[in-house]
Amino acid sequence: MPDWSRIGSFMDFCAAYYTTQLVRCAAFSFLLIGLVMLLRKVLFSERTFLRGLLWSSFLLTPFLGKLKLFYENEAVLRMTWRVTHGTMTCLWADRIYMAGIFVTAICIFGKRLHLRKSVAGMERVSLDNTVVSVTDMNVTPFTVGLFAPKIVIPKVMLESYSRDELKSVIQHERTHIRLGHLWFGLAWDILRCLLWVNPFLTIFQKKFRADLEDICDRVCIQSSGRSAHEYGLVLLKTLKLLRSGTEGTPSAVTYAGEREFEDMKRRMGEIAGFRPYRKKMCVGMAAIAFLIIVVMLLAVQTHSYAAFEDFLDKNNADGDIFIVFGDFYKLPGFSSGGESCPYETGSDAGVVQIPYQRQTNDWMATLFKIL
Q1: Closest CA to 197 of 80, 84, 28, 13
Q2: Beta strands in the chain (DSSP E)
Q3: Are residues 329 and 201 in the same domain?
Q4: How large is the average pLDDT for residues 139-148?
Q5: Of 191, 206, 178, 211, which Cα lies nearest the Cα of 50?
Q6: Residue 35's pLDDT band (cuts 50, 70, 90)
Q7: Does residue 340 share a domain with residue 294?
Q8: Could you give the C-alpha distances from 325 to 229, 303, 304, 322, in angstroms and in order?
């Protein structure tokens, strides 16, 4: 029989460990989304590709919960110690946070699964050497799926559009796939689950998707050889064909198009102001942004605490001090297993030998180390 009490303790320990980190990450996300929205409005309002690259900075947020400033920076300690103490000691708060992640994931990914099931039952036709699914729903074309993306086109559009117009529609969806926008959408949904206490990640999701849509429009216009005017006419024809707010439309439709006049007005303004761009420059900017993210992730990963003696002096440590060894140390306040021995401050010996005996393997300690 499994030891349910130990399993329960292990689950509570994991909940406290991850809640402590994710609450800190959520605090960073509030600051970051404010900065991104400000930069979008002030500096990059006319820089479509740079606006899109701004959102990549959120890839850092899930990894910021272990930064040493939460333990060594006095100003940050004063601001966060109550929250840190609460997440480490109040199991009910940790359980609520974990339950929030679970419920949010069910809501978000449940809609995705419902949409995939709907698409799986649709009629398929071949257009421009591409198999597309046809729906009776009055929605703008969209794409669903990550490893085997499926393009969905409404039947009314299939019957009313010319061959060239349908080719433009399919090219737009292919561009979303080629640029990795479906994966970006998945990453954003995962972030919304982990940091569900930040409602702005959901509120400003429209801005995130709008920037991806603008990038896709620009790439399509330049690669198609058509003018921005011709591309815009195809979009306007879509609005005339499809009425908004159709009942029965899945709420998780990916890139189903803007249903509000102001959103479409913005998109048409972007298309009207199209200017040819240099592809190599855009690729270079994306590469630089990727390198910056990688360097920052490495900096966070390798960020270490001060030397042990300096740490003791800085924190005015007194009384009996023990060194714990033989297992691992996740965060201050979070360790698992190990043996201990007293630490003698002020010893004249240059080298102190500590007898060591590996403890018996523990499956929970091993699992927590992996997590």
Answers
A1: 28
A2: 123-127, 130-135, 142-144, 150-154, 322-325, 328-331, 334-336, 339-342
A3: no
A4: 85
A5: 211
A6: very high
A7: no
A8: 69, 21, 18, 10
Looking at the fold, whether 94 and 221 belong to one and the same domain comes out as yes
Query: Same domain for 288 and 339?
Result: no
pLDDT-based confidence at residue 165 (cuts at 50, 70, 90): confident
Instruction: Please check whether residues 156 and 87 belong to one and the same domain.
Output: yes
Residue 131 per-residue DSSP state? E
Same domain, 253 and 336: no
Q: Which of 215, 212, 161 is nearest to 184 (CA)?
A: 212
Of 305, 250, 296, 336, nearest to 6 by C-alpha is 336
**CB of 184 closer than 8 Å to CB of 212:** yes
HEC-encoded secondary structure of 334-361? EEECCEEEECCCCCCCCCCCCCCCCCCC
Q: What is the amino acid identity at position 49?
A: F
Q: How many domains does the chain have?
A: 2
Distance of CA 311 to the CA centre of its chain: 34
How sure is the predictor about 190, in pLDDT bands with cuts at 50, 70 and 90?
Answer: very high
Final residue before a domain boundary, out of 301, 327, 343:
301
Q: Among residues 301, 331, 360, which one ends one of the domains?
A: 301
C-alpha 359/C-alpha 144 separation (Å) is: 50
Closest CA to 133 of 114, 153, 149: 153
136-141 average pLDDT score: 80
d(CA 291, CA 34): 23
Same-domain check for residues 144 and 91: yes
Residue 352 is part of which domain span?
Answer: 307-370
Tell me the C-alpha to C-alpha distance, in Å, between residue 21 and each of 15, 53, 114, 150, 249: 10, 25, 32, 37, 37
**226 and 341 fall within a common domain:** no
